[in-house]
């Protein structure tokens, strides 16, 4: 399943030489965690900013935060990495925001592969744990990156598997007075909330494009939340109901359906009657930023088809059928007759 979140953060323990000048001021510690942020788009850049403000003050972390950049050449002919390191700004994906002098952009990290299995989503946290042999938590929440970048108040959820201490370290790393992070012991539930809400946001965008109004949009959000919960619990019975009431659940769903990029591009798709493709609209409207909802809807559809669950999830399946041109955008409000009575 495509990543929806993306606290793409990797942590590695490092033994430091006691005589290393750089760390002399932190001379009582022999082990400090070094933080690398994998990804430097809109959210990856904000995550780096948040973390970098905390590593400077927390003695158990190295000051420096490395941020992996998928390298590209800007219209000026300069490499994005060079510009970030010179200006301390991600001029393409988060212009106007200083990341912190201790953020170092680096293009040389090994790429990771992602996989979808038809019988069920292969969770990114599981892949990372398996491939790197590390304990992986996830961070999701009502987090439009540009709003956090300018330090407007928001909340987020760290989903962790079984080690509360690990979760507390993630909370420490991200927590600021304007970014309140709480931990939930439900890694799959938190991750699936962050992923699936993108599909619902596409549906919300269709509703906006069709000018159906707020009641319809609220209905789509409620029905979407219901499918998010049912899908997550069918795949992972351990998923907790309470997770859907955390920031990663209903709050992320609301903000993404109101102010996210998936909503925005889906609105344009519906306004154009489905005549311009999502790829074309994404390129035109997002200037290099990427949508998750369309590909996630396709991956969810594969799982639903394979498991024989299409009829149980009319919203998810209708979103994919609209995105792939099988149905017109207006089908989003015509599917309700297909709704199952209960989950
Ligand atoms: N932007 C936001 O407000 C939020 C985003 N997220 C999630 O964060 C994740 C990353 O999104 P953003 O940071 O917004 O990215 P973005 O959409 O701003 O930028 C796309 C990123 O993908 C990179 N990229 C493009 N092609 C690539 C390739 N072939 N291989 C590797 N990298 C490539 C680009 O260099 C850029 O860093 C997504 O899953 C998104 O749903 C989560 C919360 C908030
Ligand atoms: O995930 C998000 C907010 O939490 C951002 O959503 P968009 O990718 O639709 O902008």
Automatic annotation (TrEMBL):
| GO-annotated molecular function | glycerol-3-phosphate dehydrogenase (NAD+) activity; NAD binding; protein homodimerization activity
Q: So what EC number does this one have?
A: 1.1.1.8
Instruction: Tell me the keywords, alphabetical order.
Output: NAD, Oxidoreductase
User: Which residues does NAD(+) bind?
Assistant: 39-44, 145, 261, 290, 292
Reactions catalysed according to its record: sn-glycerol 3-phosphate + NAD(+) = dihydroxyacetone phosphate + NADH + H(+)
Q: Which GO terms describe its cellular component?
A: cytosol
- Residues the record marks as active site: 197
Pfam families xrefs: NAD_Gly3P_dh_C, NAD_Gly3P_dh_N
Query: What sequence ranges are listed for the domain Glycerol-3-phosphate dehydrogenase NAD-dependent C-terminal?
Result: 186-333
What does the record list as GO biological process?
A: carbohydrate metabolic process; glycerol-3-phosphate catabolic process
Mind telling me which InterPro entries this protein's record contains?
6-PGluconate_DH-like_C_sf, 6PGD_dom2, G3P_DH_NAD-dep, G3P_DH_NAD-dep_C, G3P_DH_NAD-dep_euk, G3P_DH_NAD-dep_N, NAD(P)-bd_dom_sf
Q: Where is the Glycerol-3-phosphate dehydrogenase NAD-dependent N-terminal domain?
A: 34-116, 121-164
Give the record's family classification.
Belongs to the NAD-dependent glycerol-3-phosphate dehydrogenase family.
Q: What is this protein called?
A: Glycerol-3-phosphate dehydrogenase [NAD(+)]
What is the scientific name of the source organism?
Vigna radiata var. radiata
């Amino acid at each position: 399943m495509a990543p929806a979140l993306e606290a793409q953060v990797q942590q590695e323990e490092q033994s430091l030489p006691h005589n290393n000048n750089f760390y002399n001021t932190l001379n009582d510690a022999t082990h400090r965690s070094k933080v690398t942020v994998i990804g430097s788009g809109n959210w990856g850049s904000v995550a780096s900013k948040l973390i970098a403000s905390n590593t400077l003050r927390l003695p158990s972390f190295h000051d420096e935060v490395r941020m992996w950049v998928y390298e590209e050449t800007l219209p000026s002919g300069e490499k994005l990495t060079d510009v970030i390191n010179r200006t301390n700004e991600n001029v393409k994906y988060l212009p106007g925001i200083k990341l912190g002098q201790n953020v170092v952009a680096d293009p040389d990290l090994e790429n990771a592969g992602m996989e979808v299995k038809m019988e069920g989503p292969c969770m990114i946290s599981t892949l990372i744990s398996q491939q790197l042999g590390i304990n992986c938590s996830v961070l999701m929440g009502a987090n439009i990156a540009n709003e956090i970048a300018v330090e407007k108040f928001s909340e987020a959820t760290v989903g962790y598997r079984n080690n509360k201490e690990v979760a507390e370290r993630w909370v420490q790393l991200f927590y600021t007075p304007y970014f309140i992070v709480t931990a939930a012991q439900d890694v799959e539930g938190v991750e699936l909330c962050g992923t699936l809400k993108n599909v619902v946001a596409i549906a919300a965008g269709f509703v906006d494009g069709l000018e159906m109004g707020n009641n319809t949009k609220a209905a789509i959000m409620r029905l979407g939340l219901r499918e998010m919960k049912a899908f997550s619990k069918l795949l992972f019975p351990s998923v907790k109901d309470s997770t859907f009431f955390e920031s990663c659940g209903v709050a992320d769903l609301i903000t993404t359906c109101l102010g996210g990029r998936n909503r925005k591009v889906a609105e344009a798709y519906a306004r154009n009657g489905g005549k311009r493709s999502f790829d074309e609209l994404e390129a035109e409207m997002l200037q290099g930023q990427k949508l998750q909802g369309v590909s996630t809807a396709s991956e969810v559809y594969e799982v639903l088809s394979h498991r024989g669950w299409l009829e149980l999830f009319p919203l998810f399946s209708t979103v994919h059928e609209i995105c792939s041109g099988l149905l017109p955008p207006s089908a989003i409000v015509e599917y309700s007759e297909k709704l199952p009575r209960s989950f």
